[in-house]
Amino acid sequence: MPRPFAEVRERLERQYLEVEFDPASGLSKEELFAELNRHRAEHPEEPRILTRAWLFHLLCSRARIAVDPEDYFVDQLEHHNLLLELRNEWWREEEGREFANDSPPAPGTCSSIVDTSHTCPNWRNLLRYGIRGLRDRVAGRPGAFYEAVALVYEGVLVLLQRFEAARPSPVLRSLIAGPPQTFHEALQLAYLYHELQEMEGEAVRSMGRFDLLYHPFYAADLEADRLTREQAKELLKYFWIKFFAKTQGKMFGKPFLLGPEVNELSYLALEAFREMHTTEVKLHLRVGEHTPPEFLDAAAECLQAGATSLEVLNDRAQVEMLCQHGRSQKDAEDYIIIGCCEPAVMGQEMNCSGAAALNLAKPVEMVLVSGEYDCFEDLRQAYLETLGAVFARCAEDTRRRERLWPRINPSPLLSGTMDSCLEQGRDVSEAGAKYNVTGCTLVGLANAVDSLAAIRHLVYEERRCTLAELRQALAANWEGYEELRLAALHRAPKWGNNDDRVDQLAVQITDFIGPRINREPNARGGVFHAALFGIIGSAKFFGEQTGALPDGRLAGTPLTMNTSATTGRDRGGVTSLINSVTKLDLSQFPMGTTLDLTLHPSVAKGEEGRDNVGAIIRSHFAQGGMALQFNLFDAGVLREAQRNPEQYASLQVRLCGWNVRFVDLALEEQELFITRAEAAG
Amino acid sequence: MTGRLVSVQRLCVHDGPGIRTTLFLKGCSLACRWCHNPETLSPKPEIGFHARKCVGCGKCAEVCPQGAHSFVEGSHHFDRGSCTACGKCVAACLPGALEYYGREVSVEEAVAAVLEDRTFYATSGGGCTVSGGEPLLQAQFCAELFRALHAAGVHCAVDTSGAVSWQSFETVLPYTDLFLYDVKHIDEQIHREHTGSGNGMILENLTRLAESGVPIEVRIPLIPGFNANQESLSALGKWLSRMPNIARVRLLPYHLARSKYETVGRRDTMPQAPIPTPEQVREAAAVLEGWGLEVGR
Around A143, how many Cα atoms within 13 Å sit in the side-chain half-sphere? Predict the structure, then answer.
């Protein structure tokens, strides 16, 4: 019998680190690998989707398992990432062939990948049909796709039976027989499915509308006296801690969505979240006109307690935006957030939000190198044209990659949850989902805007230097040009201060590139969708390949993310930052956008502070903002945490789309947060 | 009409209800030893120097018509006696080590700056607060600012020491929704010793103001060695308990701002006392509550 969560939390956090799989329970890695090779040799012409399904079934039925009698759930399968290895083999092979004779795009301008990892399965179908039901939906239908789906779900059934044999339980028996009946069964199914989809090769980047999907189970249990509220909270904590245990807090946070209509379970979830204080579950809260103020209060209390791994969404604006960009009203209202802040229709969309990324700052460097401009207007125009050309190249590369997808990572388990895939007999990699869009993320907005503003200020208005001199200063990484750099840093106006002349540059850039991205066809019958949030990886990667910039930034340093100002340059504070950001038409970014706010804890203290947080959220929404996430801390505490990491092990900070523990950050990254905190307080 | 400002601060949550924009006006009629805004004391413009930010480039010395800035062995010296606060050095100081206190701002400019955040006032029940320094030394400016803000539906508050003529209060009264009124000590002599002035006018103005019907929040700075004791607080509480119209009393625990004295070249007068502990603040609040006053935290 599992013990109280609080007593065993530490052990649960390590549950995947010390697993002992019983050798008698299945095959070793070498044996599994040998089985796979034999199968491939015997079936050289087999469609890849069937080879993957066969391997999936092999792992479910023959790989070693482990069960923990002190856990509420079972989920341990020693699969050795064999499906990922197979995918990677095909990936290298296909990309190598496709791009053999290509010269890559100019370094640091853009990137593209096959993004198989921003997915949200159809949780509704999973809970409604169960594993057996999903298998039965395709059983006996002809063709490789249906065969593959039937095979993987058959595999899951076998795995459930193996687990049940190892640890007899009514929960598993019920899931073998059909759809889940209780809250416990629903969570067991969700977690096991999550593990198996990730084993298949597609990261699960949304766990769905949690309060909506799971409340019926919760309510029925309470009604039938099968479960108490406290027991449900325990189950939830055991369930949620797994996401931390899996990654040790080093990943992006597993998104769960709450709202906009709330129920008992919404509040229970916030309570468990606040008590757990974890970075690895991420809550997205849809806040709409009918969301009760108490719910926002409860969310603000999480923030006050330091549980800041949550994002609030402007529900009305998000739904309107999704409708503008091709979703039906009904589907738009059923959106979730995939990954960081990408809205998508739950279980009906493959949004591939991480497929393409553009470095907005790089074209500044390119236009400076390439020419002389009589006036700022000419330079600005050249910047936009260069940016447009960079995107055209990026889009073409991305489409070529997308066409490889069916030969790299067909996904029968994920496809098997989606109605549209089953109706058409098509895998998600072949545009089987109802909505198939492709994300293009814009990185370094503040760098681009501040750099253009600095050029205008230094060269064309104040005439502190010529364009040629500025070019030299940047080529020297500002060395020997300290005075000019100080002028660039402290005299040139900056994005995020509600300074209209600078902010209009941001408006011009986003008005230009947003619509251009959104009408560009992808290779799956859809279009690209622009995103205005940064991924820490691309901010770093693009930053390394971007030289010194006119805004005073040094070569190689990370670019700015999201719609944020350059760190420490938003001297006007939070309200001015919000006023700047909401001048942008954010509905041009259907792949999502968010704003990070750093508040001094005194602003959020006590009941008045809770109201302040609510007022900031409502003001942001009233002005057209889409999403907000928060950091609450003062610089002194962060310095202290830097000196005594062990005493501040649980201090969380927001890192673009997700939370991390402050003490896990590199020194340089810690300094950025301290700079922000100093500016806030 | 113009006002002389030290700064405009946004997202202020301690200067009245909700989220507010606070204008810090220059010049004060008192000289409290614990003042944490010494840059607002003098009514005249002045130059602040943040030594930490100085890179020793010497630009200030190059542009100063008075020769007030000089460098001795690379270290910056500022002769405030000869400084006329023309501001040329501030314009030349790229790292921002020099700062201008006392910018002249038109009413229109101030109104526009405040209205930038009107959405935040609307959602939070906030507004605009004039503070300082003693804002009512520039009562006409405050009145015109408030008149325009009132027309735009913005809640207006005055944060005052009370040490100004009653006429100044009358000037702003029609457009003021809330007074944040500092009362520091009930004993005339002690008050004079620590603030440079007696408290007669302060108490008299508060008595008259309490009859005006405009809500008043009384603020008591809690200063060790001055009023942070049972006797002083009790006397204050007793006096205040007779006033009508006082919405609440708020304690402002002493906090340190020594570096700011250095910035404006003033002798540091802040008490050499530790800041009050939360327990001491609770005790102080209890004394006031004993007189039937509502104490905000």
Answer: 11
At residue A115, the pLDDT reads 94
Provide the Cα torsion A146, A149, A152, A158; round to 10°. -70
The CB density around residue B104, as the number of other CB atoms within 10 Å, is: 11
B135/B31 same-domain check: yes
CA distance B23 to B111: 11
pLDDT at A161: 98
- In this prediction, the residues of chain B whose per-residue pLDDT falls under 70 are 297
- Using a CB-CB cut-off of 8 Å, the residues of chain B touching A490 are 94-96
Query: Closest approach of chain B CAs to the CA of A560, in angstroms?
Result: 22
- Establish if A126 belongs to a structural domain: no
Predicted local confidence at residue A60, as pLDDT: 98
Rounded to the nearest 5°, which phi and psi values hold at A439? -80, 145
A634 shares contact with chain B (CB less than 8 Å): no
Nearest to B120 among A482, A609, A619 (CB): A619
Show the low-confidence residues of chain A (pLDDT under 70): 655-657, 680-681
List, for residues A149-200, the tens digit of each pLDDT value. Answer: 999 999 999 999 999 999 999 999 999 999 999 999 999 999 999 999 999 9
Q: What is the pLDDT of residue A656?
A: 61
Same domain membership, residue B37 and residue B52: no
Q: How far apart are CA A528 and CA A513, in angstroms?
A: 12
> How high is the pLDDT of residue B275?
86
Q: With an 8 Å Cβ cutoff, is A279 touching chain B?
A: no
Length of chain A: 681
Per-residue model confidence as pLDDT tens digits over A579-592: 999 999 999 999 99
The pLDDT of residue A655 is: 66
The beta strands (E) that lie in A288-408 are given as: 310-314, 335-338, 342-345, 349-350, 356-359
Q: What is the domain count for chain B?
A: 2
Distance to chain B for A615, nearest Cα, Å: 5
Q: Which residue of B has its CA nearest to A578?
A: B117
Are A609 and B297 an interchain contact pair (Cβ–Cβ within 8 Å)? no
Cβ neighbours, 10 Å, residue A224: 10
| pLDDT for the residue A143 | 97
Report chain A's terminal Cα–Cα distance, integer Å. 49
A625 and B CB contact within 8 Å = no
The pLDDT value recorded for residue A657 is 63
Is the preceding peptide bond at B278 cis, omega within 30 degrees of 0?
no
By DSSP bridging, strand A356-359 and strand A110-112 are: antiparallel
Q: Residue B28: what residue type?
A: C
pLDDT of residue A508: 98
Q: Is the peptide bond before A371 cis (omega within 30 degrees of 0)?
A: no
Which of A573, A615, A623 has its CB closest to that of B124? Answer: A615
| B72 and B189 inside one domain | no
Surface of A (561-590) touching B: CB under 8 A: 572-576, 579
Number of domains observed in the structure of chain A:
1
Q: Which domain holds residue A565?
A: 109-119+347-593
Give the pLDDT score at A681: 61
Q: Is A664 domain-assigned?
A: no
Domain boundary among B35, B68, B101: B101
d(CA B33, CA A345): 62
3-state secondary structure A386-412: HHHHHHHHHHHHHHHHHHHHHHHCCCH
Residue A662 burial (10 A CB sphere; 0-12, 13-18, 19+): buried
The CA–CA distances, whole Å, from A194 to A16, A156, A413, B236, B258 equal 15, 12, 10, 65, 57
Domain span including residue B58: 46-101
CB A395 within 8 A of CB A520: yes
Which residue from A1, A20, A25 is spatially nearest to A163, judged by alpha carbons? A25
User: Is B13 close to A572, i.e. CB distance below 8 A?
Assistant: no
